[in-house]
Amino acid sequence: MTALTYQKDARTYRFSLPNEIWGLKLPPPAFSILAYLCYLNCHHKGDAVPSVDEIAALLHMGPDMAQKQLDALIKRNLISPQMVPVFTHKRTGKFFSLPNEIFSLDLGHGAITVYAYLLYCEDRSSHQCHPSYKTISATVGLAVNTVMKHIAKLEDRQFITKEHTSYADSQGMKWNGNNSYTILPIQKAVDHSYERQMVKLAETTERQRVAEELRKTRPCSPL
Q1: Fewest CB within 10 angstroms: 107, 144, 171, 212, which?
Q2: In the predicted model, what is the mean pLDDT of residues 14-37?
Q3: Of 112, 196, 122, 121, whose CA–CA distance to 154 is shortest?
Q4: What digits encode the pLDDT tens for the residues 128-165?
Q5: With contact defined as beta carbons under 8 Å apart, do 59 and 108 qualify?
Q6: 167 forms bridges with which residues in the sheet?
Q7: 63: nearest Cα among 73, 74, 51, 72
Q8: Count of beta carbons in the 10 Å neighbourhood of residue 16
Q9: Closest CA relative to residue 128, chosen from 142, 140, 118
Q10: Contact (CB, 8 A) for 84 and 70
Q11: Rounded to whole angstroms, how far apart are CA atoms 206 and 202?
């Protein structure tokens, strides 16, 4: 149910979230679950409701945590007991969008939430944004060190590039500025994920081959 097939025109295969979602102050596990249910509601209406175990495995959390977050979302009237998003988001009409592939690339709830915030901040013409670690931390509810870890993961998986910036004050003193992030086409992350899977498959196949060779050459036990 959670497997996604990449579509060539990524702009057509996205789903939207309202800007107001950041005002809800959801922890990353709850944010990622709500985002996933919004994705399902947008593209898979009428399909079977995912199980708690499926949601937990997809978003890298334990089943108990997933159930706790679902209960909290229901209590806050953000989803129905049938896991359908019901929160109102038409007051301003402003939204940002995420690629469907976000849930098929093995990111986990923390990295998904950080990536979603960068997409929210993104300049749609330059595909860049410049939020500080502290701003990201305060918005998504994660420690700065954890945010830095997720940024590194997103950069390694080719979702984004990061560039250090600096500026000079009125006295000519040079200071470090916020990082500049560029949102890469999702196809880069998809291709990188495929390459990683192929490498793992090759490594597994080689280990199996070596194990089989060792088994064949192992001396027989004496009678």
Answers
A1: 171
A2: 95
A3: 112
A4: 999 999 999 999 999 999 999 999 999 999 999 999 87
A5: yes
A6: 175
A7: 51
A8: 14
A9: 118
A10: no
A11: 6
